[in-house]
Amino acid sequence: MTWGIISTWQMSLAGVTKAAEQLRDGRPSGDAVQTAIEDVESNPAFNTVGYGGLPNAEGAVEMDAAFMNGDTLSIGAVTAIHDIAHPIAVARNLSHEQLNNFLAGSGADVYAQRHGFTSKNMLTPEMQAFWGKQVRKNATRHDVLNTHDTVSAISLDYRGRLHTGTSTTGIFMKAKGRVGDAPLPGAGFYCDNQVAGVVTTGLGEDLMKGMLPFKINELIRSGATPQAACDQAVYPFVDELYHRSGHIGAVSVVALDKEGNWGVATNTEFTFVVATDQLEPTVFKAERGSHNTTTIDEARL
């Protein structure tokens, strides 16, 4: 059995490198997913996830995260959680609960505090100043729609276990309590040991309309490769949504199947990171190609 991990955006490279070392040493895929995502959550240089993330319209950093176990299909998720260093850790803990697996706002805050998760003021002085500047200039729709890069990861270990995770602060200047696709099962992520894991990044309001992770999982179950499944699900969806509404935001997906094969599709220029037992952690760039296919090249760092 092989191992592998795939994660959205170049910002996950350092985390994926740490996670790959764990997988190489035989650690569970759930640990690898958490490690990869926590690295991004901790780094204030990445302003769409965790510490240093962009605040909502009221100046607060509200975070969403989710975790799924592909063996048991257990899910844990939080949305609009505040001042917790690692929302992904809280989501993973919730996946072990029999009930109350998805908590929001103050309920998520209380759960995290009661279970001893590390508290941290996630609003940095830099982001507070940036928020104030945007308020004074009345931030435009363009400012808001170009700030929503979720870190999402899928990992496969030597024992054939698949896990997925997501973490984000969502779009800049979002309404208090706004929820995107990242913590929503079937929309922002899905995972099944018997098939594959699939995760998304992009504009949640549009991604929620497609339920792409679940659709891609079912295409793979029916015999499609991860790459073919991503292409077949994403490109007709983005074209149809644009036809119906006249606009569409960024939509990107990555998939990893139970054999360690991966795929990706996107309607924007999109970077992602892959590491396997045959490939050192590598950043790739994907774009939409011709005939509903995806063009993938190694990124120049």
From TrEMBL:
Taxonomically, the superkingdom here is Bacteria
A Pfam family it matches: Asparaginase_2
Name the source organism. Loigolactobacillus binensis
The family database entries (InterPro entries) matched by this protein are listed as: Ntn_hydrolases_N, Peptidase_T2
The protein's matches in Gene3D superfamilies, at most eight in alphabetical order, are given as:
(Glycosyl)asparaginase
The name on file for this protein is Isoaspartyl peptidase/L-asparaginase
